Amino acid sequence: MTSLRQRLTAIRKPEGTTLPAMLPTGITRRHLAYFFGGVVFLYFCVTVILIQELSVDSVIKKVQTYTDSTPKCVLNDSLVVSALQRVQSEECRNSITNAYCSGIEQKVTLENTCPDFAASQVGVPIGCFNESTTPLLRGFAYTFDENSPSYCSQACLRAGYELAGLKASRRCYCGSKNDLKKAVKLDDASCRTTPCPMGSNSSCGGIHAVSVISTGLLSSVKRLIPVYQPLPDVDFDGDPNATPNVKLLFVLQLNGRNSRQVIRMLRLLYSQKHVYVVHVDSRQEFMFQEMKKLQNSLEKRGHNNFLVFEERFQTIWGGSTLLTMFLRVIQWSIQARNNFSNWDYVLNLSESDMPLLSLAELEFNLANSKGKSFLASHGYNTADFIRKQGFHFAFHQCESRMWRIKTRKQFPKNMRIDGGSDWVIVSRNLAVTALEKDGLSKQLLTYFETILLPLEGFFHTLALNSHHCHDVVYKNLRLTNWRRQQGCRCASLKPVVDWCGCSPLVFRGKGDKRFELATVKSKAHFFARKFDSFVDVDAIAVAEAQALRLQPALLEGLRKSKAFEATWVNAFDVVVDYDHKKRFLYEGIAKNVFRKWASGQSFENCKFDHLTGLWAYKANSQAKPKPVLVVRDGCGNRFHILLDVKNLTTITPDPGMLDYEIVDAEFGTSLDLKEEVFRDVLPAVDVTSKATILLHWRQNTSLPLATNITSPLINLQWWNTLGRLVKHELVKPYNSIFSGQHATLDLNAINADVVPGLWSVRLPSKDSSDAVFETHFPVFPSDSDSELFAKLVVTAFAPGDVCSVDRVDPRVPLCATTEWSPDFPDPKADLSAFSLA
C-alpha cells in the first residue's frame, strides 16, 4: 500500500497530462479540497492561539517591565488583558494590576442585620414541586455553570426574592411564597435526579421537578412611596421660622463651566438655616475659581454656611470616585464641629438640577419624614437590574476612565442589592452608618470600590442589609428627563467607560406638562434634571417660576430684566486655561479679528496684546450661540467682540432623494451626541483637530409613518484645500429625536494630505453634478501670523458689534450697557440677590 506522501507526490502534473488523469485510485478532487482546507484551517487556528498567547504574554511582560517585578497573580482574564493593552500611563497600568490581584472576589459573608432576613434560613429546603410548561417560580430565571443550592439561593437573595428553585442541573429560578399557592408537591427523590454541575455532590432538581429552598428573606420589604404634604396656611416669604426645624446639607457636585446656572439654582435654595458644600471636578478649574469667588462674597456678607471643598476628585460618569467624594464630604461635615456638622439630611445636586417646588415645601415635607432616606429604585426586576448595571464585572478607575477588568463569579454572601439613581436624599442616621469603619459598612465599601456607578446603589444596598431596611422611601423626589432612544448612545460614553449606559436629556421648551403644579405635587417631584441654559433657557424659567411662586415680588423682578432670556457660558479663560489645547488657535483668530476691526480707529496703534476670554452668548433659546471674544490691547484697553460666524454651506435639494429632504448642514467641533449641539462655540480646527458635520433631515410623506429611521444612507466626500478627495465615507441611517445625522473627520489621522487651507465636505447628488450640500471650513496653520491664517479668518469670521470695558472712545459703547456682553447685568445670576434669611 502506497504511503500518503507517495500518493501526494504522484499528484504532480507532468507535461501534457491533465490532473484528473493522474489522480491515484481512491483520491478525488474533493479529497484534495478537504485535505488542503483542513491544513489551512489548522494553520489559522494555531495562528490565532499563538497570537492570543503572545498578546497575553506581551501584556504581562509589559507590566513586569514597568513594575520591575512579576505581577502578584496570573492575569488570565481577557478583560484585564484588554485594559492593559489600552492604558497609557505606567501609574494606571500598575493600578489596574494591583486592583486585579487584590482579591476582588474574596469570600465574605455580610453582617446582614435587617429584621426581614434570617441567615439561619438560607438554603433551608421548602420542598420538591412539579413543573411542566409554566415556570413554578416566576420572578427570574438564571442558567449557571456553577449552579448549586448555595449559589442559586444567594443569587435570588441578591435580587430580593424569598425563594430559590433548582431544576435540570443548571437552571436556577427565583420567586416568592405566593408562587407556591397552587403548586403540586412531589417526593424529595424527584428532585435528586439531576446532579449539580462542576462535579458537585449536591442535586439540582429534576427534569420536571424543582427543588425549592429559602433565600433567608422572611418577607419582602414594603416599599414606601412619598406623598406630597401641603404647607400650612402661613406666610413663608422671608420668614425663616415659618417651617419646621429641619437642617439640610446640600452637596453640589459640579462638573462644567456654566457657573451662572449654578448661581441661578442656588438663589432658589439658599437659606442661612442650611449648609452648602461644593465639590468641583478636579479638571474644572474655571468653575472652582468661580465658586471660590462666591464663597468669599458670601463670607464678606456674614454668611459662613457655604464652602468649596478643597479636596477634589475626577467625577467621571460611573466613576468610583463619585462615592468616595460624597462620603468624604459627609465625613468632613460631621467632624467639622461647627455649623456644618449638625444637619438632618444630606442631598446632592448637580449644575443641571433645578427645584420645581419651593424650599419651604421641601423643608416641610422632609421635616415630617425625619429618619427616612429618599432613594430612587430602578423600577423593574432587580435581577435584570443587576445584569444591566454590570454588577457581574469588576471595574477600576484611572486615567479618567472606568476600566472593566474582571468577570465576577463571587459576591458577598447574604447580600441584597438595590439601586437606581446616584441622586439621593440620605438621612443622618443612614449617613452615620455608612461611615462606620467596621462591620457591614466596611464590607460593602470594599465591594462597591469595584462597582460601576457605585453611588447609584451603595446607600440602597446598605439600607436593605441593615437595621435601616424599613427607613427607605423609594423615590428621590426628582423628575428625570429620560429619553432613552437618544440618551442611551454608547458612543458618548466610550471615552470614559468600558460599558454602555444611559443619561437623561435636557428639558426643552415651556410646555412640558410634567412641570404642571398638580402633576408635580401628585408625584412628589421637588427637583428635576437635566437643565442646560446653553441648550434651552425656557424650561429653566418655567421651573424657576414655580419654585418662586410663593415669592411673587422676587419673580417679577427677574422677569423685568433684559437679560432674563439670555445665556452666557464661559468657554475659555486665560488665567485658568493656560494649557487649553486650542488656546493659540483662539488667540490667532482673536488677533486677526481685532486687527481688522481696529483698523482706522483712534487706538489702532495700541495693537492686539492677548485674548483673555471666550464666551458663548445666546439671546434666547431659539437663537444660535455666538462667540464673544474678550481681548486686551497693548495700551491696556479691554474689549468684547461679538463674532459673526459666516455661513459657508450651500444646499441644493436633490429631487432624486424621495424619502428625505435635507434641512441644514452645520460644521463644528465637540459635538454633544445626545443633545446634538456643538459645545465648542468657536468652530475652528487645525491640522490636529477633529472636524464634524451635523446634518438635519426632514422625512417626506413617501416614508411609512412607523419608520424609526430619521435620516438616509449617504455617501459623504471630504476634500482638502488642493481639491484632493481625502475620505469617502458611507454614513449609515440614524435614528434621532432631533432628526440629526453626523460624521467626523480626524485630521490627525490623514497624514500627508493635511494641508492647511479651505476644506470642504459634500454630499454628491444622484442625478446631477451639483452637491446636495457642500460645507466649506478652514483648517488653520500653526503660524497665526501667516498670510494664510489671516485669509482663513476673513473667510470664516467677521467682527460684529464691539464694546469696551473701559471708556476708550465715545463711539464704542460700554460693555456694562451692551446686552450681549458678559458684563451686562444679569440678575438671575447675581450674587447680591441671595436671600439673607
Automatic annotation (TrEMBL):
<protein>
    <recommendedName>
        <fullName>protein xylosyltransferase</fullName>
        <ecNumber>2.4.2.26</ecNumber>
    </recommendedName>
</protein>
<keyword id="KW-0333">Golgi apparatus</keyword>
<keyword id="KW-0735">Signal-anchor</keyword>
<dbReference type="InterPro" id="IPR002889">
    <property type="entry name" value="WSC_carb-bd"/>
</dbReference>
<comment type="pathway">
    <text>Glycan metabolism; chondroitin sulfate biosynthesis.</text>
</comment>
<keyword id="KW-1015">Disulfide bond</keyword>
<keyword id="KW-0328">Glycosyltransferase</keyword>
<dbReference type="GO" id="GO:0000139">
    <property type="term" value="C:Golgi membrane"/>
</dbReference>
<keyword id="KW-0479">Metal-binding</keyword>
<keyword id="KW-0256">Endoplasmic reticulum</keyword>
<dbReference type="GO" id="GO:0046872">
    <property type="term" value="F:metal ion binding"/>
</dbReference>
<dbReference type="Pfam" id="PF01822">
    <property type="entry name" value="WSC"/>
</dbReference>
<dbReference type="Pfam" id="PF02485">
    <property type="entry name" value="Branch"/>
</dbReference>
<keyword id="KW-0472">Membrane</keyword>
<keyword id="KW-0812">Transmembrane</keyword>
<dbReference type="GO" id="GO:0015012">
    <property type="term" value="P:heparan sulfate proteoglycan biosynthetic process"/>
</dbReference>
<dbReference type="GO" id="GO:0030158">
    <property type="term" value="F:protein xylosyltransferase activity"/>
</dbReference>
<comment type="similarity">
    <text>Belongs to the glycosyltransferase 14 family. XylT subfamily.</text>
</comment>
<feature type="transmembrane region" description="Helical">
    <location>
        <begin position="32"/>
        <end position="51"/>
    </location>
</feature>
<dbReference type="InterPro" id="IPR043538">
    <property type="entry name" value="XYLT"/>
</dbReference>
<comment type="pathway">
    <text>Glycan metabolism; heparan sulfate biosynthesis.</text>
</comment>
<keyword id="KW-1133">Transmembrane helix</keyword>
<dbReference type="GO" id="GO:0050650">
    <property type="term" value="P:chondroitin sulfate proteoglycan biosynthetic process"/>
</dbReference>
<keyword id="KW-0808">Transferase</keyword>
<dbReference type="InterPro" id="IPR003406">
    <property type="entry name" value="Glyco_trans_14"/>
</dbReference>
<dbReference type="GO" id="GO:0005789">
    <property type="term" value="C:endoplasmic reticulum membrane"/>
</dbReference>
<keyword id="KW-0325">Glycoprotein</keyword>
<feature type="domain" description="WSC">
    <location>
        <begin position="122"/>
        <end position="216"/>
    </location>
</feature>
